Amino acid sequence: MESAKYVSQKISKTRWRPVSYSSLQQPDIFATGSWDNEENKVSVWSIGNLGSSGLEDGFEGDPQLICEQKHDGDVLDLQFLDQERVVTVSSTGAVTIFRQAPNSQTMSICKHWARAHRYPSDNAPSTGVACNSPEIVTVGEDGRIIVFRADQEGVVRVIENADSSTLHAVTYLRTTEVLTVNSIGQLKLWDLRQQSNSPSQILSLSRDRVPLYCVDRHPNQQHIVATGGQDGMLCVWDVRQGNMPFSLMEAHSAEMWEVHFHPTNPDHLFTCSEDGSLLHWETSSPSEMPSFLQGGRNSNMTSRSAMAPAGGNQSIISAWLHGDSSKSRLETTHMLPSQTLSVNSLDVLGQCLVCGTDGEAIFVNRQVPV
Amino acid sequence: MEELQQVAGVDVFDFICLTSAFFPFFSQVSILLAIELIWNLCEVLFIDAAPAGSLLLHLLDWVRLHKADVDEKAKDVLQSDSPAEHHNYWDVVVSYVLQGRLEEARQMLVKQATLQPASRNMYKLMDSLLSKMPFYNPGGTQTLTEFDVKWRNWHEEVDRYLKDNTFASNRHLELICKILVGDEDTLLEQKELLSTWYHFLVTRLLYSHPTVKPTDLHYYAQSCLTMFLDSRSVQEPLDSILLAAFEFDIYLVIKDCSIVLNNWWFVAHLTDLLDHCKLLQSHNLNFGSNMREFLLLEYASGLFTHHSLWQCAVDYFDHCPELGRACLELQIERVPLDTERKALKVLRICEERQMSEQVRSICKIMAMRALRNNRLGSALSWSIRAKDAAFATLISERFLQDYCAKGTFSDLDLIDNLGPAMLLSDRLTFLGKYREFHKLYGEKRFKEAAKLLLSLMTAKIAPQSFWMTLLTDALPLLEQKEVIFSADQTYELMYCLEELTSSLDTEEDVEQTKVELLRLSLARNLAMAIIKEGTVET
């Protein structure tokens, strides 16, 4: 069930708080960051029953605000470091760790690195953060990659001039390797064990150098990543295989802001875009019954995928990389009811999906068909 | 709306009246309630355009909607142990009657009737009078005239009972009877329960002229207003607006609202709605657009100055056919661009509307900023987006200057991976090819490097200013033991050198020595090449 909650602030990022894998609980707490306000905020919301505060408003699952904290500058990225702490990066170039003690109603700043990203004479916005507790990696418009540790005061390492253009997103590939995407359509792999300031590998499309804005790694197969960029195309890459993406699919009619593989069910992928849509991609491997024959789905769209057949190495298991479209089915479903302003961010965990828009709304779906 | 009134804790009418002198400086809630009042009235009068008969029913709904305290009081009374003895009991009953909610009034009266078995007959009579009051049914088969006749009969019956002093022994029932007969003085005495002149108006019409025609409304409105306001209270802006609405003077309503309210939100949307209902004749204003568009433009321009609502304003401009686009073009360039992400969103808005001028200008701003901060890759990516060849040339110049100054390329990741963007500007193409030359040289593929170097000059890809550097780069190739440049190629090199020296001012000594050195190397290479080519392999 979709429910929209209007929160009077444009949402730039939403993230579920991680749930421990031992429990089979569905996530019930998420954090949001706002942008373009005079006073921006980081807020924590709950959709579960919090003891006494139950379904007073009558609308089941309406997100309730637990606590919020002022944030200096736009929240350009937000990640949970662990159950209690959230890292944000700001348009002022600052990196901040917020902490909310369990069962408390307040949030406080526990670490703040001001102007971590900067130009000589100006602020440089920091655009992306990735966490592998206690390590934190941030990237920014100044082309730097900075490594922090949550328990240390100073900066652990700075890779100066990692890129001559803006780095828009970063993700961990392995515990010692990160992948960044930039404004000239390149994916760069960085080995953090090396001391050198150059990437260990650079991949890019051989055609137009379209800026890339988001990247996500396949949860089980570390060599598969998906990216999205200015032209709204979804690209799936195999980083071992050099310079060509394996699949190129037309996804959106405007910039794609985020792409996420489902963490436990990676046949499902979610993308959101400036054009106001959120797409749920589902691929089924050939051995299973094609998903469109299964019942219980509403508002299906015919697949708009335009998969470029790539030289399929048969040993690759992942259905995402099948070049031959007759062997695997790809289904795309719109998840939001109607025309909205840009969907800036989404996160999916278990069966729950949360997204935030420029229309100052948060949508929560607790029954994502995965 | 009711919730809002409950939250505010007071009856909106009271609230507005009490502090009505400060109407323009109200808190947001009270302004919102007043706006809702005006909006609903406009809906009833202008949009539904109810004819006589239904008009009164709509007005009754309108009054009921905006006076929620009756239900509050009723709830209190009913929840008490003995409702009929509650101090607000009669207030509730009378309020119900004033609002024409006779069913509920009857239900309340039953409670009183059970307590006073002696007056049972009176209560029964009142009950029957209340139940017999005719209400016009717009969907029914009864015509207005038939209804009028029925109503008059009923009215006369009530009047008769009044004149017979049937209810004289119970002052409350007598009061109710007088209300039912539409006695003005009695109604005026209920000022506290009515609390506003428009409630008074509607009640008065209900019990004396239920078939009022829209065109006659304003007579009653004006007289009610005058009667209700005594010497102490003064006519408020809200009152004038409502009066203008009752007079069906749309323009006056819009004008007064514009004056009283401090932003264009309400007026713009109301005018837009009325325009869609084709109720506004086009009022040509000085700059050629009509009133709806004027107000929408004002509102949207105001929105644009807001730090985050500028995105909504874009849609408003889209719906102004004459001047919307021009206004948007002017405004969109003024949105402050603190981050690249915001710039991207603004650019998307411009590109969707084919505003190429604005795209170029925004990209140029971002590119200049990037250049100032030495982010050459970003600058290039912005100029690619704007398809701005001139700027791409500028960036390439920067790279080349850096190279001349430092001897190495900065930002190799960018130059090595230019891809099709190279074709955007000649200078950029040269940069890419030049870098390729260096790569080939580094890989010791001398023949190919030489060929590339030469083509850079002969195909005129390289700017003349750079030829000296290129020729200097050719030196090591010329000095190799193995002959790399063929005889023809050497002739071309010499030709290039001559072309260069003839066009340059030859004053600098450094240049002269270089030129000398080059001539020497070229001559030597030529010699070796001729010999090599002339030699027959044995």
From TrEMBL, chain B:
Which Pfam families does the record cross-reference, listed alphabetically?
A: Nucleopor_Nup85
Location in the cell reads: Nucleus, Nuclear pore complex
- One GO CC term, this protein: nuclear membrane
Give the Gene Ontology MF terms in alphabetical order: structural constituent of nuclear pore
What keywords are annotated for this sequence in UniProt?
A: Membrane, mRNA transport, Nuclear pore complex, Nucleus, Protein transport, Translocation, Transport
Look up the domain of life of the source: Eukaryota
Family per record: Belongs to the nucleoporin Nup85 family.
What's this protein's function? Functions as a component of the nuclear pore complex (NPC).
Q: Which protein are we looking at?
A: Nuclear pore complex protein Nup85
Tell me which species this is from.
Xiphophorus couchianus
Question: Which gene is this protein's source?
Answer: NUP85
